[in-house]
Design brief:
By secondary structure, the chain is mostly helical. Helix content is 74%, strand content 7%. A three-stranded antiparallel β-sheet has the order 1-3-2. α3 (29-36) packs across α4. The model has no long low-confidence stretch (mean pLDDT 88).
Length: 139
């Protein structure tokens, strides 16, 4: 689950999304290249990425060209995924700090419990030796 979100490609730029919208959410590689000024390979990469992130479909036109088709809610799907991705990236940044704090607090808890046990032993020993002295004095 979590790792797959981070391994996802970055979503296409807003320029690409606007062009896809203008093209009626149906675009070929050459349509997108013409509309955005991207190279054909960049247009291909952007459409493939967008299709994989938003479950877009690929159709073959009568001329044999591949047409990428996106449903009405594709932008919502994209922003939901990028939101999850942002959260995951934030967590990845914070994780080492949290791990360090956990280790340090565990160490402090361990040391303070050892100190508490030693203190308790010393108190018990000193009170029992006082009792012994009292017994000797009294007897």
């Amino acid at each position: 689950g979590m790792k797959s979100i981070l391994n996802e490609p970055s979503p296409p730029s807003s320029k690409v999304l606007k062009a896809v919208d203008k093209l009626g959410r149906r675009a070929t590689v050459s349509d997108l290249a013409a509309a955005t000024g991207l190279s054909l390979s960049e247009a291909q990469d952007n459409l493939s990425t967008l299709a994989s992130l938003t479950a877009g479909t690929l159709e073959v036109s009568s001329e044999g060209t591949i047409v990428y088709s996106f449903d009405k809610g594709y932008r919502g799907t994209l922003s939901a995924r990028s939101g999850k991705r942002r959260l995951q990236e934030q967590f990845e940044k914070v994780k080492p700090v949290l791990f360090y704090i956990t280790k340090v607090s565990f160490g402090i808890a361990l040391l303070s419990s050892i100190a508490l046990i030693f203190t308790a032993i010393i108190v018990i020993q000193s009170s029992s030796s006082r009792d012994d002295r009292d017994d000797r004095r009294g007897g």
